[in-house]
Amino acid sequence: MDVPTWVWIATGVATIAVFTFDLAVVGRRPHEPSMKECATYLSIYVGMALVFGLGVWFTSGGTYALEFYSGWLVEYSLSIDNLFIFIIIMAKFAVPRELQQYALMVGIVMALLMRAIFIAVGAAAIENFSWVFYLFGLFLIYTAVKLAKEGGEDEDEYEENKLVLFVEKRFPATKAWDGRKIFTAENGKRMITPMFIVILTLGTTDLLFALDSIPAIFGITKEPYLVLTANIFALMGLRQLYFLIGGLLQRLIYLSYGLAFLLAFIGVKLILHAMHENELPFINGGEHIQWAPEIPIWLSLVVIVGTLVVTAVVSLWASSRMTPDEQDAASGPRRDWEDD
Question: Which of 12, 94, 130, 309 is most buried, most CB within 10 Å of its CB?
Answer without folding.
Answer: 130
